[in-house]
Amino acid sequence: MERNKRPAGFPAWAGNHPFPPDRKKPVLIRKEDEVTTVYGAGREKISPRIFASTDKILMSSWVVPPGQTFEPPDIHSGDEQYYVLRGRPTIVNPETGRAIQAKPGDAAFIPAKSWHCVYNFTEEEVEIVAIIEGAMWDNEDIGKVSTFTLKTLRYKGQE
User: Fold this and answer.
1) What is the DSSP letter of 23?
2) What are phi and psi of 142, to 5 degrees?
3) What is the pLDDT at residue 3?
4) Paired strand residues for 132
5) Which residue did the predictor score with more confidence, 104 or 78?
6) What is the DSSP string of 26-94?
7) 139 — phi, psi (to 5°)?
8) Cα separation of 23 and 41, whole Å?
9) Does the predicted model carry a pTM greater than 0.85?
10) Residue 149 has pLDDT above 50, yes or no
11) Mind listing the domains of the chain with CATH numbers?
12) Cα atoms found within 13 Å of the Cα of residue 146, Cβ hemisphere only
């Protein structure tokens, strides 16, 4: 993807928060500087707080309420790392079925071009800090995310 070119429908702040590529500098990002957005559809939404989104990195945090996930699942053009602040997320690759359960203080690595979503099968909120290498999505990825369909999974406990 060209340096400053965004996919269609890409938010204007993405790749330019807190600064566009030619104006980057060290900066303290305060609460009033963050961008809050919504990702997901229907009941399965999260509200990421974006701290930095440049041409090289995106850093955000978000909460998955008890009994929920976010849909559609996500995919990125760069590697992504999660750091779990609260809760016990179940991180799933819906394409392969691979799942891992994390706890506070754990970090998870999600390779570039890997589908992923986070389920919260517990009674407490899950809070995650996420860092994506490079742009949030490229043209190919944003097209996949907007057309991905998956039935929501619900944990029913032991039988």
Assistant:
1) G
2) -65, -30
3) 45
4) 58, 80
5) 104
6) -----GGG-EE--EEETTEEE--EEEEE-SSEEEEEEEE-TT---SS-B--SS-EEEEEEES--EEE-T
7) -55, -40
8) 34
9) no
10) no
11) 21-147 (2.60.120.10)
12) 11
